[in-house]
Amino acid sequence: MKRQQSGMMRMERNWGLLFALPAILGLLIFTIGPITASFIFSLTDWTIGGQMSFIGLENYQTILTKDTTFSQSMFVTTYYALGSVPLGLTAAFIIALLLNQKVKGLSIFRTIYYLPTIVPSIANTMLWLWMFNPDFGLLNSLLESVGLPGSKWIYDESTAIPSLIMMSTWGIGNTVIIFLAGLQSVPTHLYEAAEVDGGNLWHKFFHITIPSMTPTIFFNLVMSLIGTFQAFNQAYVMTNGGPNNATLFYVFYLWRTAFTETKIGYASALAWILFFVIMVLTVLIFSTSKKWVHYEGGERS
Amino acid sequence: MKQITSAAHASEAQQHPPPQPERSRSPAPATRAKSFPISRVLLYIVLILGSMLMLLPFVWLIRSSLMGTSQIFVFPPEWIPSPFQWSNYPEALTSVPFGRYFMNTFLIEVCVLTGVMLTSIVSAFTFARLRWPGRNLIFSLLIGSMMLPYAVTLIPTFVMWRELGGLNTFLPLIAPAWFGGGAFNIFLMRQFMLTIPRDLDEAAYMDGGTPLTVLWRVIIPLSSPALIVIGIFTFIDVWNDFLGPIIYLSDEKHFTLALGLATFRGLNNTNWPYLMAASSTILAPIVLIFFIGQRYFIEGITLTGIKG
Fold this sequence. Notes:
The complex is a heterodimer.
Chain A: H1 2-42, H2 58-65, H3 68-99, H4 106-114, H5 121-131, H6 138-145, H7 157-170, H8 173-184, H9 188-196, H10 201-228, H11 233-239, H12 250-260, H13 264-292
Helix pairs in contact in A: 1-13, 3-7, 3-8, 3-10, 5-11, 8-10, 10-13, 12-13
Chain B: H1 2-15, H2 21-25, H3 37-65, H4 69-72, H5 88-95, H6 98-129, H7 135-144, H8 150-163, H9 171-174, H10 183-193, H11 199-206, H12 211-222, H13 224-240, H14 243-248, H15 257-267, H16 272-292, H17 294-307
Pfam families (chain B): BPD_transp_1
Family (chain B): Belongs to the binding-protein-dependent transport system permease family.
Protein name (chain B): Sugar ABC transporter ATP-binding protein
């Protein structure tokens, strides 16, 4: 009996490793290997076609002390994140609250609000490029029709990032769906208890809905922040980083350094700084989360 | 007896989308109980206004794609094309070899989907069901890799393919799919498999089966809802992918639809009807797939979101 059991265990181990092989190899080839290589590159001055020499932390030093394009792109990206994350989360939360009511045609509404999210980002940027057109675009003609002055949108330094923030809010479908799922798993007995105690809608919202939703809010906050810090396509297709570097997103600057100027070493250092920034932000949010994120009994099916 | 009920339960799972406890538990929202007709009406007005806001860009896209260049530049803009210029579509799509771009995209889709399906199911199975040394470590590394900004691995991966002579081939876009199919897919598939009763595995082992038998006889037949979710997500990701193609493909022969559309813009910077016609064409299959698989799609997002 015992031998049979150990034979079973050996079989499970062998098959287990065999089945895990693609994933393990994938992890090595496409994650761990590249991470190691990226770190080594970041310590060199390697430009494609040139000699590679080890220069220690010089890239990092240059980036952090002398590179004004770096600080501009960091500013642009932070500005974009500070605008689009709170706006997107608030809008998504409100939409989720509305969609959580018992309304007729719920699945139609759900589909409509989700639809913009699946638009291929390249088609999306084309569409918005045309909507932002200062002369014949949809937005200016809408403003005109209610008697408001038009804007130059992405073609003006001061309105470029706000325009892109507005555009990002159109595609918040994923966040809405995740909020909706969160709302639907708020335990009903809490609401019933509040009703027994004579609580009104506001009580229920602030004392039950919001606290129960904090884990979901937390998840969406982290995910959107990580996402916005990696914005790229808008800058590449719509603005080319302009006007006057006003939309020079960090990843776009990184991409340009690596693939246009072929400065592999320098670009790798830029990538590590981005990684560091995202990590610090995530750790910060995690460390404050103990104060505001409530887990009910710590379990969810 | 227990086995029979769990088997019945499992075959039920096969017919329905991934588990959805929240739906059956309570759809009762916070404010439903005491709603006055007025607030009902208000709710519908807000929802409808919001929907119009969401749909407006689509309407703008389609109306622009059907106009002549003279009508599109009229201010204030007109909403109804007159005449409907259907010829924009064939003209825009033949002015650049979109047919070839479509075939390229399609080829990549098929190879990626096959790879993702095969390897993510095998990986998820081993992480969900089999015990082997180092399993938890590898799984944590895999999950951790989802947090890594793509910018970090982008450059070395590009250098690697350059050294291997993979530039201007589809290999860099396809290969990762054959090595586990991505942490996200493994994670999603594993979550689903954890809901399949273990008694079924044990029954198969009792009959002298190996893990391969369990995978083939039990797990794969019961996993179709998760496979559909992963299939739809993967299809859309590949269809929408832009960064991968611009990095690896420089020869126009190899362009994908997304890349083709981006360069099409450079050629037709002022021909907005053509640009909008090409954009709608690339959008259409995704919208279609979304409508067909809508239920699975939203369950999939819900599943991953809640577990995160």
